[in-house]
Automatic annotation (TrEMBL):
One of its GO terms (biological process) is fructose 6-phosphate metabolic process. It comes from Ktedonosporobacter rubrisoli. Keywords: Aminotransferase, Cytoplasm, Glutamine amidotransferase, Repeat, Transferase. It comes from the Bacteria. One of its GO terms (cellular component) is cytosol. It catalyses: D-fructose 6-phosphate + L-glutamine = D-glucosamine 6-phosphate + L-glutamate. Signal peptide: none annotated. This is Glutamine--fructose-6-phosphate aminotransferase [isomerizing]. Catalyzes the first step in hexosamine metabolism, converting fructose-6P into glucosamine-6P using glutamine as a nitrogen source. The active site is at K366 (for fru-6p isomerization activity). The keyword Plastid does not apply.
Amino acid sequence: EAAEKGGYPHFVLKEIYEQPQALRRALAGRIREGRLHLSELESIQGLLAGIQRIVIVACGTSYHAGLLAKYVIEQWARIPVEAITAAEFRYCDPIVGPETLCIAVTQSGETADTLVGIRQARERGAPVIAITNVVASAITRLSDAVLYLQAGPEIGVVATKTFVTSVAVLYLLGLYLGQQQGRITSEQMREFVTALERLPEQIEHILTQASGPEDQIAPLAKRMSQVSSMMFIGRGVGFPTALEGALKLKEISYIHAEGFPAGELKHGSIALLDPDTPLFGIATASHVYEKVVSNIQEVRARDARVMVIATEGDEKIRQHAHDVLYVPATLEAFSPLLAIIPLQLFAYHAAVARGCNVDQPRNLAKSVTVE
Ligand code: G6P
């Protein structure tokens, strides 16, 4: 087993560090010479031409990837998108038909609720695209087309590299649909593709810093590891990032954590804030940056400890936060793929400091095949 971990103390850490490579593999062959090629979708082009709505069905971390995709697909293709957790979708008598593209996101391809939900959608005539990491898994037999993550095996129960690659593949699909709808010019496409291709090296940069002498994440996580509760806030694509950051922390460190849309905090959850409840704000460069900063100021006013994920070069944010973890600059849509890396590392180090079984957390399974 030590050999399989490739020198890392845990599979989770190994898989966090594999993310640049996993992302390269997910993009490989799909972006060539600055252009997008999704040959997997060629056979269903006719089905896709008629769609008026998209429903993304998924659970857990895959659901968070779906929530992110809602923001970008709506923006790029101007097609309404709903992301819904599979355990709700299957019992809500879903309104889907041939005009609704259903996208199943499931790294294992075996999650029972997702399979049942997608079977229902198919029975109602909806075209289905599966996004999964496991070749020939059950979901692939229920789908009209499959986009594989190509992330390589993920042994740790918590999803890390399959999250990043699910988001990337959903984004590629969004770009494809945007192009098909005539909403993305070739110049914009070049800009997106260039930014996407830079992401693996940008993730590498974050990981290299985190393993060097200047690392802030591990010491910070260690200091925070004894708190009983934490909050994560963000807006726009920062919101699903906050949800995923909170989920990672809950799953492996057992610290109670919640993610919120930053603007919603004042409508209830702000009552939970006190000096013993630290908060992570996702404040990377975006069109809602100023709004996030003002939410962070509200939090500071309650004496909560504020940690922030920000874009390199943003010195101004330091005045609003006790700790700032920087990530490289990218397009707003792609920022979650960078912002999530320090949050994964934070969860990992907090869990190690608490002596938790990070590779196999209590009560969790890699794939949940019961309903
Ligand atoms: C389990 C795992 C989670 C995962 C979820 C969905 O609960 O512990 O990490 O996000 O299932 O899994 P899937 O294979 O459908 O993506």
